[in-house]
Amino acid sequence: MSDESIDPADKPALRALARGRRRAFVAALDPLAHRLAFKAIPSPLARRLTQAQTVALYMGLDDEAPAQRLAAPLIALGKTIALPRVLDRLGSMDFLGWRPDEPLLPGLFRTSHPDPANGVVTPDVIVTPLVGYDRAMNRLGQGGGYYDRAFARYPDALRVGLAWSAQELESVPADPWDLPLDIILTEVELIEGEQP
């Protein structure tokens, strides 16, 4: 199935296409290349993070791009790390402070999150998992609206999408409430949107 054979407004079909590409890509990826992916912060991204204090990552599930690998280089840059905590089935989540040596607690939808005693933090940067993306900086998420709501709640946070290059689509439909990403990071490139 190609982008051309799908109705460009059919988000479920685009999700199926992008997930299939991601699954096949990760299955075929050399294990060493997989282990090395997302272990460094590219210098253009590091420059965009100079003013940021708190960076919200996520724990990659299955074949998602592993955002947790960015924790060590971000900590080396002096950043505080946070992870999302899903609060309910209605699309609400917050962010809790976290260090890589701290255990995680089980959450909704197979997610895991830091101990709530770590405290809720306000992220300056939100790194989001992607099902798909396009060069216009539109993102295709899981469909639950969690990150859409987080972007609306923290409008000044830098929005960074993390994906494998195989997840790129020709076009992702954007609803009126969808905010474009500022940056997309894959294992091979960093794509920057227009800077304010």
- Assembly classification: single chain
SS-based class: alpha/beta
What radius of gyration results from the CA coordinates? 16 Å
| CATH class call | Alpha Beta
The CATH superfamily title: NagB/RpiA/CoA transferase-like
Taking the alpha carbons of the first and last residues, their distance comes to 37 Å
Strand order of the largest sheet: 3-2-1-6-9-10-11
Largest sheet: 7 strands, mixed
Order of helices and strands: HHHEHEEEEEEEHEEE
CATH fold call: Rossmann fold
Strand percentage: 15-25%
Low-confidence stretches: none
| CATH architecture descriptor text | 3-Layer(aba) Sandwich
Question: Which percent bin holds the helix content?
Answer: 10-25%
Count of distinct strands: 11
In total, the number of domains comes to 1
SS summary, helix count: 5
